[in-house]
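Whiteboard transcription, Tuesday session. T.W. wrote the structure tokens on the left side:
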């Protein structure tokens, strides 16, 4: 069975807005899947269902193996770092919550901060970091529990093009090294095509899939 499958999922929010209409999609383990579409077409709602933050009005979500606690990492456009905590403490938080022993947790945090290029900023506070660096810290925090699935909702939309391109490349490097699956929501077709090995293109309204396109074919 696929790693994750949405079957006939529809979502009607309590105020009556229909955000998804009978969506079906299967995601294989290790895939980097882009979900592309205009604002309001239901992309975030798909991620909320996968994260278990909302329940479908109809249809269901199936896993080959349901993720354990810490098994899903999430990164949003706004880096939600705690302003009063140093970067290393922000990144270690999920491990503290999971009661991972301090020595092991510190080693994992240091390794991950080095991987995202923040080794020299472990002791810094979020306000001392640029937007791109805050995003790197958020990615490190999302990956520190070694999740099998990473959900990203327009993570780089607020960043300048150069920073965004660097983050795209570094995300691909992390994905190549560790074996997580990615669902990456973006309104940028360019970004989706650059990053993903498959793109789900949403129709404008009301929350339907327009196309499901493989992108990992070699260029001639
Ligand atoms: P996208 O991520 O593609 O911008 P969303 O999934 O955020 O789309 O939203 C899809 C539709 O559902 C939009 O019309 C939006 O206004 C609506 N919507 C999103 N969240 C809520 C909510 N909590 N309550 C009511 N309507 C919502
Ligand atoms: P994004 O598209 O960046 O993911 P959101 O999903 O937060 O943004 O919101 C998308 C749209 O859904 C917004 O335009 C907002 O008006 C609407 N929305 C979000 N939450 C609610 C809510 N609780 N009730 C009604 N509308 C909502």
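and on the right, the sequence the group agreed on:
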């Amino acid at each position: 069975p696929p790693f994750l499958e949405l079957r006939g999922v529809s979502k009607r929010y309590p105020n009556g807005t229909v955000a998804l209409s009978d969506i079906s999609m299967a995601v294989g383990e290790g895939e980097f899947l882009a979900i592309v579409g205009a604002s309001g077409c239901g992309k975030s709602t798909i991620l909320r269902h996968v994260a278990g933050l909302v329940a479908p009005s109809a249809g269901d979500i199936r896993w080959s193996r349901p993720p354990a606690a810490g098994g899903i990492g999430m990164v949003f456009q706004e880096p939600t770092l705690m302003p009063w905590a140093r970067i290393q403490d922000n990144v270690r938080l999920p491990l503290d919550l999971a009661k991972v022993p301090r020595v092991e947790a510190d080693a994992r945090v240091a390794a991950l901060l080095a991987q995202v290029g923040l080794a020299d900023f472990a002791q810094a506070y979020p306000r001392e970091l640029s937007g791109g660096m805050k995003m790197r810290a958020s990615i490190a925090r999302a990956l520190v529990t070694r999740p099998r699935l990473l959900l990203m909702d327009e993570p780089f939309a607020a960043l300048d093009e150069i920073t965004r391109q660097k983050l795209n490349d570094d995300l691909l490097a992390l994905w190549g090294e560790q074996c997580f699956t990615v669902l990456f929501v973006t309104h940028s077709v360019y970004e989706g095509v650059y990053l993903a090995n498959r793109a789900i293109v949403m129709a404008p309204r009301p929350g339907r899939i327009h196309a499901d396109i493989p992108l990992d074919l070699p260029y001639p």
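Someone added at the bottom: The mean pLDDT is 94.
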